[in-house]
Specification:
By secondary structure, the protein is of the alpha/beta class. The chain contains 20 helices and ten strands. The protein has two domains: about 350 residues, ABC transporter transmembrane region fold (Up-down Bundle), CATH 1.20.1560; about 160 residues, P-loop containing nucleotide triphosphate hydrolases (Rossmann fold, 3-Layer(aba) Sandwich), CATH 3.40.50. The protein binds adenosine-5'-triphosphate. This is Aaa ATPase domain-containing protein.
Length: about 725
């Protein structure tokens, strides 16, 4: 995968050819070389080339953009009205100051970390080291110049003294450079910790993790943003801090030194050159922000489609669907590579101009800047040995001045790159906040009619589950049921049936507050407080495909709790396992209930029984049994319903199987057209299992149809 832009190559610090040329100039001292440099046709060719490249490349870039397929054109990722700087600052504040006390609620109790809040001190330490580092590098160059002068003068005592000085400086340098690197890495890590913990605090509350994937969909792969983008953002920020400070200190120091050595003309020429180069580069610089963001998006999609195949490997293998999977994966890969091609082309044109201005042209400019004072300025009267020492130092000062100004140019592009990451991480924050406060106006999450909190209806506390005039609507705004009203009293077991996609499971997405309630009132136990969301306490949900957690057998059973309830022991868990004939699971591991394995490898029937054990461990008031007995025998089913009755658990079963009706007293039938009926079960008959709804069916699958019919009625 290519980088989103080529690396800027700056003039190197060891341009020996240049030193050689200067030495030749001094040696001949006839002014010929100087005139050559100043009147060289190559200088004019270079200027002509730069102008041609500038106009040619911008023409080509425009043309290329026009011809680019729609999917390859970078899209704006700036969805918020805030400026990038504001977004950047909001992230940096969290990364550096942890203002929300992120991680306070987490199991790690990050806030108690004694190192917390040290980020500012790391930055202060880094700043001091960078200033010191610049000083010793300059000192090294200066002493090297003196060493050269003493060599030319054949002064052995001074020569040894300078060598000792250089040795001391080098030891200091070898201490300072790794310290700077280590502080940069520490700063990036600490920022990452703060940001990640802060994101976790927001992501894992109010079901934001569910809503971001199912209701909003603007953040394609939130996992990628949390695990990868945050890391890159922090790394880029801490490097940027260094990259910003370092050239500023260097420019100040070397401008001062240059002025001292050859007058203000030296630094002025370099600065003028850099400003012109910066302007020309600005004109041909592609939008790295968008490109970097788009490449990350496409990388994320490519990775997630591979993940999908990995997670469903067994099913794909049963269907021998590898060819189809491969086609889909390669289509995604093709999108990624064709966009990367586009990025490479953009980088090429930029690289040509960039290399000329930052790598090659400075050589000529350096010769001019160093040559003029030798022939016409302050250096002219110096004897050869002194001149040699001064030139050695002067060349390094000019090179470092270029180097520092070049770093400032590069900084501009690094900022653009960082702003791409800022957009990506900030979008995650923005969507999380909007979902938390229910004010997302995203097309996939139409809540404009809903009140704050993501709800247009009300969820109220009651001993019983009751739906009163509720509309069930999907996140795509398809109405699944209208004016739904029924109540499930204690021990009034109900079965819910209807065609596929009719909205049976969606009823419980509303009950568990996974989906917003658009209108009507839902009554349920534990409607308020920390357990209001989800179906895991007084109401417990058992799906057809059980959810297995990573961890021990004990953690499987007690999930979502993390500790055994008071008065419970492993022996009680064993009894429950035995009741469902899976007690052998506890004996499979030498660690017993602490034994860990990949629980997804259990057979589906074993997993369903384990989920039932979980139900009886929690003993809720209501059990939502969503086709959760599809893989177990009729006897086990009987055991389940018998035990529920014995434990006072009221069952709400979603099932297509008539055989289960005998365990229930009421039936709720959806017709898949928005209609429903509520009836008592006496005895199951062909007729009673029909999905037909008697009478006028005036419910509709979407608002448009609904409005159209209401208009017709009027
Ligand atoms: N996150 C979602 N976003 C948009 N639509 C969804 C989402 N989840 C479910 N739906 C849609 O809601 C409709 C009802 O789904 P639901 O799972 O309630 O069906 P069901 O009656 O339980 O079906 P089945 O008997 O097949 O399990 C389906 O058309 C489904 O595509």
């Amino acid at each position: 995968m290519p980088a989103t832009h080529s690396k800027v190559e700056l003039p190197t610090k060891s341009d020996y050819w240049l030193e050689q040329m200067i030495l030749d100039m001094i040696h001949s001292f006839d002014g010929l070389t100087a005139r050559k440099v100043l009147t060289s046709k190559y200088t004019y060719i270079a200027i002509a080339l730069a102008v041609a490249v500038k106009f040619g490349s911008s023409y080509l870039l425009k043309k290329k953009k026009k011809n680019l397929p729609a999917h390859n054109k970078p899209r704006s990722s700036n969805t918020s009205k805030d400026s990038t700087l504001k977004k950047f600052w909001s992230l940096v504040k969290i990364g550096l100051f942890n203002p929300n006390g992120a991680g306070n609620s987490s199991a790690m109790k990050y806030k108690t970390d004694p190192a917390n809040g040290r980020e500012i001190w790391i930055m202060v330490g880094l700043a001091s080291l960078v200033i010191f580092q610049t000083y010793i590098v300059n000192r090294n160059n200066s002493v090297s110049g003196d060493l050269m002068a003493s060599l030319v003068a054949r002064d052995s005592a001074t020569c040894i003294y300078r060598l000792l000085q250089i040795t001391g400086i080098l030891i200091l340098q070898s201490l300072v450079n790794p310290s700077v690197t280590s502080l940069i890495e520490t700063l990036a890590l600490r920022m990452r910790k703060n940001l990640t913990m802060d994101i976790h605090d927001r992501y894992y509350t109010d079901m934001v993790y569910y809503k971001i994937l199912n209701l909003d969909k603007r953040v394609g792969a939130p996992d990628q943003r949390i695990t990868q983008d945050v890391e890159v953002f922090c790394k880029q920020f801490s490097e940027l801090f260094m990259d910003l400070l370092n050239p500023i200190v260097e420019v100040l120091l070397y401008t001062y030194e240059l002025t001292r050595l050859i007058g203000s003309g030296g630094p002025l020429s370099i600065i003028s050159y850099v400003v012109i180069a910066f302007g020309v580069l600005g004109m041909v610089t592609p939008n790295f922000t968008k490109m970097s963001s788009e490449v990350q998006n496409k990388e994320g999609k490519f990775r997630s489609i591979h993940n999908r195949c990995k997670n469903n490997a067994e099913l794909v293998a049963f269907y021998a669907g590898e060819e189809t999977e491969r086609l889909k994966i390669e289509k995604q890969f093709e999108e990624l590579t064709s966009y990367s091609d586009y990025v490479i082309n953009k980088n090429f044109l930029f690289g040509v101009v960039n290399d000329y201005f930052t790598k090659y042209s400075p050589h000529a400019v350096t010769s001019v800047i160093v040559g003029i004072p030798v022939f016409f300025g302050r250096l002219r009267p110096l004897p050869k040995d002194k001149l040699m020492g001064q030139l050695r130092y002067l060349i390094s000062v000019v090179a470092f001045e270029f180097f520092a100004l070049g770093k400032i140019i590069e900084l501009f592009r690094k900022i653009l790159k960082l702003s791409g990451m800022t957009q990506r991480v900030h979008l995650l924050y923005q969507v999380m906040d909007e979902l938390k406060h229910g004010n997302s106006d995203n097309v996939n999450f139409k809540l404009k009619s809903a009140k704050a909190g993501g709800s247009g209806g009300e969820i109220l506390e009651s001993d019983e589950i009751k739906f009163d005039n509720v509309i069930i609507r999907t996140p795509d705004n398809i109405t699944l049921a209208r004016n739904l009203s029924f109540n499930v009293g204690k021990n009034q077991h109900i079965v819910i049936t209807g065609p596929n996609g009719a909205g049976k499971s969606s009823l419980f997405r509303i009950l568990g507050s996974l989906w917003p309630l658009h209108s009507g009132i839902v009554y349920k136990p534990q409607a308020k407080g920390s357990n209001a969301q989800g179906l895991h306490k007084e109401i417990f949900y058992l799906p057809q495909k059980p959810y297995n957690v990573i961890g021990s057998l004990r953690s499987q059973i007690i999930y979502p709790d993390t500790q055994l309830k008071d008065g419970w022991k492993d022996s009680n868990l064993k009894e429950l396992l035995d009741d469902f004939s899976i007690g052998y699971l506890a004996g499979r591991h030498s660690d017993g209930f602490d034994g860990k394995q990949d629980w997804d490898t259990l057979s589906r029937g074993e997993q369903q029984k384990l989920a039932m054990v979980r139900l009886f461990y929690h003993k809720p008031k209501y059990a939502i049994l969503d086709e959760c007995t599809s893989c177990i025998s009729a006897d086990s089913e009987q055991e389940l319903y018998g035990r529920c009755a014995k434990n006072g658990i009221t069952c709400i079963t979603i099932s297509h199987r008539p055989a289960l009706e005998k365990y229930h007293t009421q039936r709720l039938v959806f017709n898949g057209m928005g209609g429903w009926k509520w009836e008592a079960i006496k005895e199951w008959t062909e007729e009673s299992s029909s999905y037909e709804v008697k009478g006028e069916d005036n419910t509709f699958r979407d608002d448009k149809e609904e409005e159209a019919v209401e208009a017709t009625k009027e």
